[in-house]
Amino acid sequence: MPVLSRVYDFFRSRRLAAALLAATAVWSALATVVPQRGSAAARSSPASGLAAAIGLDHAFSAPIFLALAVLLMCSTAACALERTRGALRLWRRARAGGPRSLPSASNSDFTVALGDASEAARSVREAFREAGLVVRSASDEAVFATSARFGVWGSPVFHWLLVLLIAVIGAGQLTRAEGLMGVPVGSARLDTRESYGVVSEGPLHKRFTMLTVAVPSLELTHVVDGIDRGPTPYVELYDGPQPVASGYVFPNHPLRYKSLVVHSNAVGLAVTLTAPDGATTDVLLDFDEDACVARSASVLEVAGPDGTTKMELSVPLETSRGRCVTAMPREPRVEWTASGPSGRSSGVVAPGERFEPLPGFEVGVGSVRYYARLSVADDWSVYPMYLIFALAAIALAIALFAPYREAAALLEVRPGAAVVYVRARHVRRDPSFARRVQGCVERFSGIAPTTVKRRSEGDD
Amino acid sequence: MTTEIIVMWIAVTLYAVSAVCAILGFVFRKPALERASTVVALAGLAVHAVGIGYRWVRVGHGPFLGFYEVVSSYAFVGVAAFTLLVARKRVLQPLAAVVMPIAFLGLGGAMLAPKSDLAITGTLASWWLAIHVAFAKLSYGSFITAFCLAVLFLVREGKTAKGDPLLGKLAPETLDDLAFKFVAAGFLFLGIMIAAGAIWANEAWGRYWGWDPIETWSLISWLAYALVLHGRLTLGWRGRRFAWAAIAALPIVLFALVGVALVYKSIHGAYLIGY
Hints:
heterodimer, A: alpha+beta, TATA-Binding Protein, 6-stranded antiparallel sheet, B: Four Helix Bundle (Hemerythrin (Met), subunit A), 2 domains
């Protein structure tokens, strides 16, 4: 399979990994100086031609970024595979601890000549323990010691978990749905696409949960642990007639049911209008503190025989000591403006009164009450991601702070002396480890070992 | 002036004295001055701890909010890490010549910033705040220490230093190894900090990642240090090259910590500048 092999070699390149890390960092940094689509900054100063052409104005969904993420995942996977092979090799050798691990005169790191074999073996055992290793096997001919053997798995597991993390994040983005749902207090909405004012769905999102989201009450101040959590709706979730979850929803206290998470985004006012045929609709008004008014976020359209009439509603808010009070006025008044084929008209009405936005079409104002804007996210990937984060942190800690190390000594009995050949290996090829083992051997034997000049790194 | 401010200015003064002793000791190779620097730094640290503790009790939360609290606590963590390191390895005393001027400038700069009390809001009221901030301090403290060790490595490297009462005992390999360990620890802590922040964001706002400038710059910092570690572990960046990499990566982290909140309008601005 020369093609597969070439692809594998390409992705396991250490230079490629470094280049991808650098490129992702540079792209992300550039993205923070280019106004992103949909942001307030982009509306006042849109991105320049080149930035927009390469997708920097929607940097984190642009093809370049997605390509970098995929390449980084492939590179990490290739690296993980390579490390897994190495770890398996080390694991088998560490468990066997047999002759394959033993050094020879040609591939040892250092040698030392000691009195007799048993004395030499004892000194070497003590030296290996001093170097932080556990002696796995020892005799008068050979000593083999390693650090904790799980250390071989730290780096490969960390790399595999990174791959999994990128894959889970990607899959979660493709299958999640998230939207803002306005629910007037005392009413309920079904979790379907139509119930959301704003909704974003991943291309592979299958269906909404069809759960009922109800807001029976709302508290303007909700104090928990001495801290006011602000306007707080009480939210109930129903699966058909069956209640499945309920509770107050405020920052750091969402309502959860399976993969559905409900947060409170904001509150506003809801005006119930009744059409001449008796049909009712709730118009949601958001607080505008600067203008001290609650105004409809979207324009209502009423179809008449001569065309469409557009209608907007607002409720003036009260002030206290010169500051706008973003709450329900004591006596709410609804200001309406309508513009369409029959011209422009406007007026002010109170709950219970009626108005005529276009000739012959009389609308009744039922009530003015609060509404809760809920952020509803259906994302299965969040908890698996937390688990992967936790496992990756443990694996990284092992890779960095408990790396696998081993040391092996071969004792050769010669007339008058036992020559000890010692080889020390560090999974990261840290040369200071061999020096440390050498120092320990010197301390326990009282004789300075002779460093062996290695032909090349390949001697390992 | 309130008691808290007086105490903090005393800490600034002690850090300044410690920095001067450390620099003079380093330049003129006077171990006695270096030792004095460490002792004065320890005294400054104790006074600084009193100042932080006093404010903590008064405002009812840890040093999490506003430039003054955040930068002052980083200076504290930096000096604490340095004194712990010197307690374990006396030979690292010359590190004071790099650490103490940074701590002095950090705390001195913090003292010039507004010190108004910022209350814990509903969004901030979470256990994740403590976890996120604790790992941020551990992470940035580790990176700053690695930076200082790398600077010292570059000063020490290539010199025989025979007979030098300060540098003679400092093996470049030790500095290189310690710098690597601090970068590795910082990288791990930074990853946990980012993960804790993401979990907290999901609890508070309903999304774990929003590409907010500070989130993006945290990721950039993580990628930068991933590159530094990757270079060390797979591309053989040891010694001088690794030292330069550890030095070059720190400004990215500092920008993520301080610069982003000042340059960008961000939902994270509250923690540093209080809007």
